[in-house]
Amino acid sequence: MKRLKVGICQIKVVEDKEKNIENAEKMIREAVRNGSQLIILPEMFNCPYENKYFPLFAENYPGKTTNALSNLAKTLGVYIIGGSIPEKDKDIIYNTSYIFDKKGNMIGKHRKVHLFDVDVEGGIKFKESDSLGYGEKVTVVDTEYCKIGVAICYDMRFPELMRLMALEGAEIIVVPAAFNMTTGPAHWDILLRARALDNQVYFIAASPSRNMEAAYHAYGHSSIVNPWGEIISKADENECIIYGEIDFEKIKKVRKELPLLKHRRTDLYELYKK
Ligand SMILES: NC(=O)CCC(=O)C(=O)O
């Protein structure tokens, strides 16, 4: 039976890019020693999640961070979904996830499509569009195991994007994310479980750990949810690696027993990609 072992590195992000890369490398190596074949990092894993840092930490592709991830993927013979980093392209900075195969080839990249511009009374206020540009693509990559959809954090709130990935054949959706202490406790679990259920996929969300010295306090709680909506692995707020196994028979079984994707009334409504 085909299975895939996944490791999520819930990294503590600090104000030093070198240290963040070193720490990611250490944790990836540990995840691989413990059997992971696919390793996932959090949103902005090499840079504190604050507008003022994005231009300072941004790099072109290929750059220091992506070279390190590519080398690790090749040396260790694993897939890496490299969370996200601030990517500089000409004069624009994007919140970008790079995906590497076992040979270290970059097999896809996702630029965050929905920017986190919110103002919750008494809670979180953030305006990513002050410093970042919008991604324009839906990202589904092909691996030897299955197709994997990749989106970033706030993107997960938009069910149409997730559904497009499922319709393109994704059996796993991976979302590097960094929710906060307003929306995390309120919405994190519900969103992850809903997206897994809607699309009958394994839904994996990777957060940084909570760093109380940083201005932005990440919620943590990286999780893996199966296609039946059950949380099969979950972190607390601290730095750690969590593990889980993708059971492809489970995806088939759930999709056969409850054929949601087949039962869509495409004669009544339609979802299409521009
Ligand atoms: N980094 C983000 O996109 C944060 C998204 C978030 O916290 C939310 O509630 O959505």
Order of helices and strands: EHEHHEEEEEEEEHEHEEEEH
CATH class: Alpha Beta
Query: In CATH terms, what is the fold-level topology?
Result: Nitrilase/N-carbamoyl-D-aminoacid amidohydrolase
Low-confidence stretches: none
Provide the structure class.
alpha/beta
Helical segment count: 6
Main sheet attributes: strand count, strand direction, barrel closure: 7 strands, mixed
Name of the CATH homologous superfamily: Carbon-nitrogen hydrolase
What does the overall shape look like? globular
C-alpha Rg, in Å? 17 Å
Q: Could you say what the CATH architecture is? A: 4-Layer Sandwich
Helical content class: 25-40%
Our count of domains comes out at 1
Overall pLDDT? 98
**End-to-end separation:** 37 Å
- What is the oligomer described by this structure? single chain
What share of the residues does DSSP label as strand, in percent? 25-35%
**Can you list the ligands bound to this structure?**
the ligand NC(=O)CCC(=O)C(=O)O
Domain CN hydrolase: 4-248
InterPro entries: C-N_Hydrolase, C-N_Hydrolase_sf, Nit1/2_C-N_Hydrolase, UPF0012_CS
Organism: Crassaminicella thermophila
GO molecular function, one term: omega-amidase activity
Core attributes:
alpha/beta, binds ligand LYUYDEPV, 6-stranded mixed sheet, Nitrilase/N-carbamoyl-D-aminoacid amidohydrolase, Carbon-nitrogen hydrolase family protein, UPF0012_CS, 7-stranded mixed sheet, 27% strand, 274 residues
